[in-house]
Each structure stands twice: as C-alpha cells, then as structure tokens.
Amino acid sequence: MMHEEGEKNQDEPVERPWIVLKTTYDVEAWIDHQNRAIQQLINSSKASGWGICFSLGEGGDIFMHTTSEGDVLLDVTPEAEWVTPLIAAATQVDVPATQIWALPGDRLTQLVLGLSSLIASTRLVLDHSFNLKHKFKRH
Q1: CB-CB contact of 44 with 3 (8 Å)
Q2: Which of 4, 29, 103, 137 is close enough to 72 for a disulfide, judged by CB 3.0 to 4.6 Å?
Q3: Nearest to 37 by CA among 23, 49, 52
Q4: CA atoms of 98 and 78, how far apart (whole Å)
C-alpha cells in the first residue's frame, strides 16, 4: 500500500497519523515495517537523504536516518528543541552543540519508545540533507 501511494507522486510524502507505541515489541515491529517501506522507496528511486520525519504534537520535526553502520542520525529542528532533554534521557546521550544528533544504533528502540507519546504523525523522506555538510560528534 505505501509503495503504491509512493508511486503516485514520490515528490509528495504521505503523512501518517501516529499510533502511540507502548512496548518494545510494538517499537521493534514498527521499526521493521519502516525499514521495509524505506527499502522499497530506495529501490524505486535514487534517494540519498532517506529517513523518517516525526512531526511532534507540540511543534517541530525530528528527521531520523540510519547509517550503513547502523547508527542513528537525528536532525532536530529549532521548533523541536523543547524535546531535547527527553531525547537525552531516553538514549542516555548528552545533548550535542548542534541540531544534529549521532546515536549508537542500539538506542533506536529507546528513542522511539521515549518519543512515542509526543509524536503526532510521521512521513518517509527521500531527500533530507541531515546537515551532513556540518560536522557532528557521535556520542
């Protein structure tokens, strides 16, 4: 279903309402589903900045990308800075000096579980820069 909608207009991401995930099993099933959806999009396009955008109910967006090494990059928009203490607490990572976070891959489940009640919607993204031209420090 996601693949068919993506084929209709890949330039226009489909925003999906968020369903609060309450257990690690829920989060791991969601991650698996998103991985498959992203792989379908990558295979059908020449995407370079693919990932997921979490739109927060209280404002702001968090763009998430996983690297080929399995680490997680987050681009926390200025409007979403209010959530940085929660990201730090959920992942046990210090708040970086920039809006780009680099997290070990084993923190993804804790991140999604910690943010779950604050997310309003998600959408797949194909071309987000994740400010990779800027240096970031992995924690």
Answers
A1: yes
A2: 103
A3: 52
A4: 10
Q: Is residue 84 part of a domain?
A: yes
* 29: containing domain: 17-125
Tokens 């693919």 locate to 50
Count structural domains, the chain. Answer: 1
Q: What pTM did the predictor assign?
A: 0.79
Cα–Cα distance, 14 to 6 (Å, whole number): 8
Name, in order, each residue with C-beta under 8 angstroms of 7's C-beta and a sequence gap of 6 or more.
44
The reply to whether 41 falls in a domain is yes
Tell me the per-residue pLDDT of 8-31, one tens digit each, with 9 for 90 and over.
Answer: 444 455 888 999 999 999 999 988
